[in-house]
Design goal:
Strand content: 15-25%
Shape: rod-shaped
Strand order of the largest sheet: 3-2-1-6-5-4
Helix content: 40-55%
Distance between the termini: 181 Å
Radius of gyration: 51 Å
Largest sheet: 6 strands, antiparallel
Low-confidence stretches: none
Length: 421
């Protein structure tokens, strides 16, 4: 009986030992899988952290994912929106023998099946996976992408609508393990971050491109500087005005790019503006690329960073040379007009006086003529009447001159031969 008990105990111990060994193997396998998982994530993290180009980062990450899962296609689809009329694949990595939607380079119309999958991804917010084998309802032998297994999830970048991130197995049906699904979910979070960076950079480039086009289309010279007064950039109108390239001016102050009189004053006014903030406007004269001295208005204002600190200024140069010339010409014409009006007023006054004076002279001349006829020619009274007559005539000539000055004239009375008329 004791021997039998010993044998039973031995078997029990052997069984317990086998279980312990099995547990150790499972634990080691689990540990190895966990370490492999951490290693995969670490490699992807290093790619993202060390990279500077978002497109290159995603390309390298996709290559790594392709190897990690030993699948045939990794891709990002946009938009993951069941209400959208179409979708396309902007980013993709595949095995050469299984090209995807990206290489076909086209927009795909939304189908009920695709919309259903997208709605499920957005609703569950968990990976969706499946296997397609002959005999299954979803299996399509004519499928242009040769999909035999898929693993999908929605990703939510910080810009725009959700995207769909997915893996395809094309050479055989495949059952995805829990560990693979969990790793895929972790990787999708990192893909989401990299995609956010790519979209933000793309949006920033688009904005920069738009602002550059907008700036270059402004017909007046525009420039911007940092808080040291160094040029950061300018538009084409500024370049045409001064005749200097970006390479000649970027990173330099006005003191370093020109020896024009007033450069020190301009630089000092820039530094003063950075201290006080706000807006500054000044009228001055500058020399353009042709050597012409132009009258201009410098209009400058500071801009701030997110912390509210002054980080630079933007300025515009308004050429008012023609305007000032026009103003001067207009003022000259105004002065001429006023002088003419004064002369006309003076002429009218002189004409009025001349007419009144002529009315006084007429009886004097007339009466002196009568006296000359009545008085004895050699007498003193006759001589006095002659002097009166002469003085009247001289007064009459003066009246004529005044009337000529005032652009008026008196009727010239004289005998007319009726026969000639």
């Amino acid at each position: 009986m004791a021997a039998a008990l010993d044998e039973a105990q031995l078997k029990q111990r052997i069984k317990a030992l086998e279980k312990a060994l099995s547990d150790v193997k499972k634990a080691e396998k689990k540990k190895a899988a966990h370490l492999a998982r951490l290693e995969h994530l670490e490699k992807i993290n290093r790619i993202i952290q060390k990279g500077t180009d978002a497109e290159q980062i995603l390309d390298q990450v996709f290559s790594r994912v392709l190897d990690i899962f030993d699948c045939d296609r990794v891709w990002l689809l946009f938009p993951c929106d069941p209400e959208s009329e179409s979708w396309h694949v902007p980013i993709e990595k595949t095995r050469p023998e299984y090209p995807g939607a990206f290489q076909r380079g086209k927009e795909f119309s939304m189908t009920p099946d695709a919309a259903k999958t997208m709605a499920e991804l957005l609703d569950k917010q968990e990976p969706v996976f499946g296997t397609l084998s002959p005999g299954q309802t979803e299996y399509d032998a004519q499928d242009q992408f040769h999909i035999r297994a898929y693993l999908l999830t929605a990703v939510y970048p910080k810009v725009g609508k959700p995207w769909e991130f997915g893996l395809h197995q094309c050479d055989h049906p495949r059952e995805w393990t829990k560990e693979e699904i969990s790793l895929f979910k972790e990787i999708s979070i990192r893909i989401e971050d990299a995609l956010s960076m790519l979209l933000l950079l793309t949006e920033l480039r688009d904005r920069e491109s738009f602002l550059k086009i907008l700036l270059d289309r402004i017909p007046i010279p525009v420039y911007y500087k940092d808080t040291n007064g160094c040029y950061l950039g300018f538009n084409k109108a500024f370049q045409r005005f001064y005749g200097k390239t970006q390479e000649e001016m970027i990173g330099k102050t006005v003191l370093e790019v020109t020896d024009q009189a007033g450069a020190a004053e301009y630089h000092a006014s820039d530094l003063a503006l950075f201290k006080t903030g706000g807006h500054q406007e000044m009228e001055t004269r500058v020399e353009n690329t042709s050597g012409d001295v132009r009258d201009v208005i410098l209009n400058k204002t500071v801009y701030h960073n997110r912390q509210g600190e002054v980080s630079g200024m933007i300025g515009a140069i308004l050429d008012i040379t023609e305007r000032k010339q026009s103003e001067k010409e207009r003022q000259d014409l105004q002065n001429q007009l006023m002088q003419k009006q004064k002369m006309e007023s003076l002429g009218n006054l002189a004409g009025g006086i001349a007419h009144d004076f002529n009315n006084i002279l007429s009886p004097i001349i007339g009466m002196s003529e009568l006296l000359l006829e009545d008085l004895a020619p050699e007498s003193q009274p006759h001589e006095n009447a002659r002097e009166i007559f002469k003085a009247g005539r001289r007064g009459s000539d003066l009246v004529k001159q005044i009337l000529a000055f005032s652009h008026q004239s008196e009727l010239q009375l004289g005998p007319v031969r009726i026969q000639q008329v």
